[in-house]
Automatic annotation (TrEMBL), chain A:
Upper classification of the organism: Bacteria, Pseudomonadati, Pseudomonadota, Gammaproteobacteria, Chromatiales
Protein known as: Response regulator receiver protein
SUPFAM superfamilies: CheY-like
Record-linked Pfam families: Response_reg (PF00072)
Entries under PROSITE patterns matching the protein: RESPONSE_REGULATORY (PS50110)
Superkingdom, taxonomy of origin: Bacteria
Chain positions found as 4-aspartylphosphate: D53
Automatic annotation (TrEMBL), chain B:
Gene3D superfamilies: 1.10.287.130, Histidine kinase-like ATPase, C-terminal domain, Sodium/glucose cotransporter
Species in which this protein is naturally found: Thiorhodococcus drewsii AZ1
Transmembrane segments: 6-24, 36-56, 68-88, 119-146, 166-183, 195-222, 256-274, 294-318, 338-371, 391-411, 417-444, 451-473
Record SMART domains: HATPase_c (SM00387), HisKA (SM00388)
Coiled coil: 649-683
InterPro entries reported in the protein's UniProt record: HATPase_C_sf, HATPase_dom, His_kinase_dom, HisK_dim/P_dom, HisK_dim/P_sf, Na/Glc_symporter_sf, Na/solute_symporter, Sensor_HK_Regulatory
The protein, known as: histidine kinase
Topology in membrane: Multi-pass membrane protein
Biological classification of the source: Bacteria, Pseudomonadati, Pseudomonadota, Gammaproteobacteria, Chromatiales
One GO term describing the cellular component: plasma membrane
Subcellular location: Membrane
EC number(s) reported in the record: 2.7.13.3
Length: 124, 918
């Protein structure tokens, strides 16, 4: 079943790989290059799941996550944090702010695909 | 004519004000809220140094000697520099030993000798009483002159009946004041807060009065045109009189030196200065301010001496007016009755301040060092009265009265005689005789009682012979032949040319001989025997005073004593209540529950002796305590043993203090170092976390695409090629990053290799352009160069400079406008530096980012997306340029995009070449 996926990341090559993986799974994919654009995209396109980077220009991933969780009509959006910030403190921060999952770069494509599947299954 | 009643009224009002201030300060002190515990008050109280002799006499001296009046103030100013050592030592010793006068100080230093204290007192009284007369005379004269207002008439010496002589009335009033506030309690080591407050107030009054006349006269002088001034000073007489002032010649060096030294000594040795400077100080830290505040006071009070003297000489050219009265006669001549009255009050302040403090100080000395020893001799045969305290207080009150009356009588009989007029400096010389015993005693352990006695006596005798007797002779009381040819015609003994030392000012001459003989005899006699036990103990106490903040004498006493007898003895002088309080304090300090539990040991006996010292002087206290105890005499050897032990303990504790201070310092340093390390650690952590973040990003792409390609063999060829291309570029990015991180680490740690040589920046630019030409062309940008025709020589590493230049060019290529991008390289010279600027026509750098672009991993966005760089290029470039002694910075030209410039010092060869070419 096709879902709407939003990828928010400022690294063009990572975006390309994620886009490929998600489309291969048959999802509808949108891309945003920074936090602000990402937040707008969540509001306008209401994706089922967001793959969210942390270190981005304009608005960082944690801020996007916090805003999304604070708006009732967006709060149910699944969010997968995918970031090069690999410290335990960052992971805890992400999870406590309400991320559904937290993965660090470099990531295993298989694990990522599995994780996305799991999260999407929960929305049904 | 100013009504006599008005003057008397105002004088009385002024004295009442003084009474009120003293009363108020004493009340405050009784309630524990001291008004004098302030460094400025202390500084002002020292200004009791400036008497009527300063107030009126400075102008007089200036008319005779020009700037010759200055050494009297220069000396104390210079001496103030030494106060931090000399005066501090004296203060510490005096506080811990309860020393209350200069006589007590000298007596205590040389084994608590009664006879020494007596001699010092005698010298002080003989030397200082005429000086008191001078003050009385100033009061009386100023009164008479003011009374004749507006007429200017010099007072005549007339013998008035006592009750009509205002000097006599003033004497009695001052005696009353001194008795009332100076002898409230027997313990003279207690401070007289009321007196100090009143003296500080008087110091302000006399300064204000002096400055008022000074300003009035000086402004008046300035108001005259040069011609008027010239006319005024035209008569030959006036010109002659003005010569010393208008063409100041420094009087002979020996006079300047001698009088400066003399005044510098007097300012700590005069009984009133000892009283104010040492006995009355409430906190030794006040000394710090006095060291500059007191000289400042002297400067201010001398500021207008010369203008006043000049005006006086112009106005009264015929010498009909005594120059010593110019302060008062000038305001009268200018019809300024209120100013004249103010001057009168100022002079009164100066005179009364001196008289009060001096009489109190002298009375303590007389009662403790002259009268009490005599009484004690008497008491051996007749039992003394029970309340000795009251008796001694009365002795002291009587002494004040007698001293002041003596001053009055000397004034009354000497009157106009030279012996009175010239007494100021002569009095100083008498007091200066204490210097060898005091200063020698503070810095030399070898002085003995006999040495001090002999030195003082010799100096005093020479003083009488060379200064006092000649002043009598000049007053007509002795045959003048004595002056010229010496006694019995032995002209090498002529009192003002002793041993044919001719041509010196009499004061300088007398000072020189008396002090020389004093020091010589002091040293010679002292060296005849070793200091005995008690002298050794006191010597240690005095000489080492600065090593301890509260010097205490080691317990050098062995014998048997009864506590009851000790307290009974102290009670007889201090009263039951104070004695009880004092011994209770001692018991508490030593950890005993009650006074009765105190052992009558060395410490208690010593305590009682010091307690008594404050009341009756150290020498008498010692004799008194000895009368109720059985002391075993300690041999010098034993004393030295005990002292050595004490000083060893002191040395240990000093060492310990040093060690613990050093430890504290080390701890502090360690803490700081640790903080620095933590800071460095944090920076390193930040760097590492940035590096890992930067490494993870390309690694993520590489892993993702590798897995995609690996998992899915069916991907179309085009897409496969695209993905492989990404793999290659991300791998390149990764290795570039690793290289740059290593490079930066190498440069920062100083391990980079530099192959420095003289290079031409034009070559560097050309090579860098060649290396980036393709990149620039790919972006479709245009490059233009603006170089010099002459070589741009700098000292540096060619490869490193190319690295910097390539970095700047590739940045410019990245940021130049997409359409019609332009890059401009400009080479120019600024002073002795070469500057290269690379400019693009891109969006420029935000103002707040101009410095941040040099931070590691800072990356500027291009059109919202991330540039393909490592964020290390500029930090590395800056490190390189810094290392070569130049600087690299960014600037903005809004329309023209970003500009990055670096400067390097021009190589000397290049510089000379430049010079040659211009």
């Amino acid at each position: 079943m096709s879902k709407r996926i939003l990828i928010v990341d400022d690294e063009p090559n990572i975006v390309i790989s994620l886009e490929f993986l998600m489309m291969r799974e048959g999802h509808e994919v949108r891309v945003a290059r920074d936090g602000e654009a990402g937040l707008n995209a969540v509001r306008t396109h209401r994706p089922d799941l967001v793959v969210l980077d942390v270190m981005m220009p304009k608005l960082d991933g944690f801020a996007v996550l916090e805003t999304v969780r604070s708006e009732p009509e967006l709060a149910h959006t699944r969010i997968l944090m995918l970031t090069a910030k690999g410290g335990e403190a960052d992971r805890q921060k992400g999870l406590s702010l309400g991320a559904d999952a937290y993965m660090t770069k470099p990531f295993s494509t298989r694990e990522l695909v599995e994780q996305v599947k799991e999260l999407l299954a929960l929305t049904d | 004519m100013i009504d006599g009643a008005l003057i008397v009224g105002i004088s009385c009002l002024y004295l009442c004000l003084l009474f009120a201030i003293a009363f108020w300060a004493d009340r405050r002190a009784d309630h524990g809220r001291s008004v004098i515990a302030h460094p400025t008050v202390y500084g002002l109280s020292l200004a009791v140094y400036c008497t009527a002799w300063t107030f009126y006499g400075s102008v007089g001296r200036a008319t005779e000697n020009g700037i010759g009046f200055l050494p009297i103030y220069l000396g104390p100013t210079l001496m103030a520099l030494l106060w931090g050592s000399v005066l501090l030592k004296m203060i510490r010793v005096s506080k811990s030993e309860r020393i209350t006068s200069i006589a007590d100080f000298i007596a205590a230093r040389y084994g608590k000798s009664q006879i020494l204290g007596g001699l010092v007192t005698l010298i002080a009284v003989v030397g200082v009483v005429p000086y008191i007369s001078l003050q009385l005379k100033a009061i009386s004269w100023s009164f008479i002159i003011l009374h004749h207002y507006p007429e200017i008439r010099m007072p005549e010496q007339t013998s008035l009946p006592l009750w009509h002589d205002n000097a006599f009335v003033a004497t009695l009033l001052l005696a009353a004041f001194a008795i009332l506030f100076g002898t409230r309690q027997l313990d003279a080591s207690e401070r007289h807060e009321g007196i100090v407050a009143a003296i500080a107030f008087e110091s302000i009054v006399k300064l204000v009065a002096f400055l008022a006349v000074g300003l009035f006269v000086t402004l008046g002088l300035l108001g005259l045109g040069p011609t008027e001034l010239g006319q005024l000073a035209a008569t030959p007489q006036t010109q002659e009189a003005l010569r010393p002032l208008l063409e100041p010649s420094v009087s002979p060096f020996e006079d300047w030196f001698a009088i400066s030294l003399l005044a510098g000594l007097a300012v700590i040795l005069l009984p009133r200065q000892f009283q104010m400077g040492i006995v009355e100080i409430s906190d030794e830290s006040h000394l710090k301010r006095a060291i500059w505040a007191f000289p400042l006071y002297l400067l201010l009070i001398n500021l207008f001496v010369v203008p006043i003297a000049i005006t006086g000489l112009i106005l009264f050219p015929n010498g009909e007016v005594d120059a010593d009265t110019f302060m008062l006669t000038l305001p009268i001549a200018f019809d300024q009755p209120w100013l004249a009255l103010l001057v009168f009050i100022g002079g009164l302040s100066a005179a009364t301040g001196m008289v009060i403090v001096e009489s109190i100080a002298l009375s303590t000395m007389v009662s403790n060092d002259l009268v009490l020893p005599a009484l004690m001799r008497l008491w051996r045969r007749h039992p003394p009265p029970a309340n000795l305290g009251r008796l001694l207080l009365n002795v002291r009150r009587g002494a004040i009265l007698v001293i002041l009356l003596m001053g009055y009588l000397y004034y009354h009989f000497a009157g106009e005689a030279y012996a009175l007029v010239s007494i100021g400096l002569i009095s100083f010389v008498a007091v200066a005789q204490f210097a060898p015993a005091v200063i020698g005693g503070l810095y030399w352990r070898g002085g003995t009682r006999e040495g001090a006695l002999a030195g003082l006596s010799a100096g005093f005798l020479v003083w009488i012979y060379c200064l006092l007797l000649p002043s009598f002779a000049r007053s007509g009381w002795l045959p003048p032949a004595f002056m010229e040819s010496g006694p019995g015609g032995l002209d090498f003994l002529a009192p003002q040319a002793l041993f044919r030392l001719d041509g010196w000012n009499p004061v300088t001459h007398g000072f020189f001989w008396s002090l020389t003989l004093n020091i010589g005899v002091f040293l010679l006699v002292s060296s005849r025997r070793k200091p005995n036990a008690i002298e050794t103990r006191q010597a240690r106490l005095f000489v080492d005073a600065l090593h301890q903040s509260h010097p205490t004498s080691p317990r050098l006493w062995r014998g048997s004593a009864e506590l009851r007898e000790l307290t009974a003895l102290v009670e007889r002088f201090l009263g039951v209540r104070r004695t009880h309080e004092a011994f209770e304090y001692l018991a508490k300090g030593r950890g005993y529950d009650s006074t009765s539990a105190l052992p009558a040991d060395a410490e208690t006996v010593n305590f009682a002796e010091i307690l008594l010292s404050g009341a009756i002087g150290s020498a008498s206290a010692r004799v008194m305590v000895a009368s109720v105890t059985q002391e075993e005499t300690l041999g010098l050897e034993e004393v030295l043993d005990i002292l050595d032990e004490a000083s060893q303990i002191r040395a240990y504790s000093y060492e310990l203090e040093q060690k613990s201070r050093a430890l504290e310092e080390a701890t502090e340093e360690l803490r700081a170092a640790n903080q620095r390390l933590q800071e460095l650690d944090r920076l390193k952590d930040d760097f590492i976390s940035s590096v890992t973040h930067e490494l993870r990003t390309p690694l993520a792409s590489i892993r993702a695409f590798s897995e995609i390609l690996f998992d899915d063999p069916t991907i179309e060829l085009d897409q496969r090629r695209h993905f492989l291309g990404i793999l290659v570029s991300e791998t390149e990015r990764l290795s570039r990053l690793v290289n740059q991180v290593l490079d930066l680490a190498k440069i920062e740690s100083g391990r980079a290799e530099w192959r420095n040589e003289t290079i031409d920046l034009r070559g560097v630019i050309e090579q860098s352009v060649a290396a980036t030409r393709q990149l620039i062309a790919d972006r479709g940008s245009q490059l233009d160069l603006d170089l010099q025709t002459r070589p741009a020589l700098v000292w540096g590493d060619r490869d490193r400079l190319i690295q910097v230049m390539v970095n700047l060019l590739s940045n410019a290529a990245k940021f130049a406008a997409d359409e019609g991008g332009r890059i401009h390289i400009h080479l120019s010279t600024h002073d002795d530096r070469w500057r290269v600027c690379v400019n693009d026509n891109g969006p420029g750098i935000a103002e707040e980012d101009l410095e941040q672009v040099f931070e590691k991993f800072h990356q500027t966005q291009i059109g919202g997306s991330k540039p393909a760089g490592t964020g290390l290029g500029l930090p590395i470039s800056r490190q390189i340029i810094d290392h070569l002694g130049g600087r690299l910075w960014a600037l903005n030209q809004p329309e023209k995009g970003a500009t990055l410039c670096f400067e390097l010092p021009a190589h000397p060869e290049g510089r000379t070449g430049m010079k040659g070419s211009t």
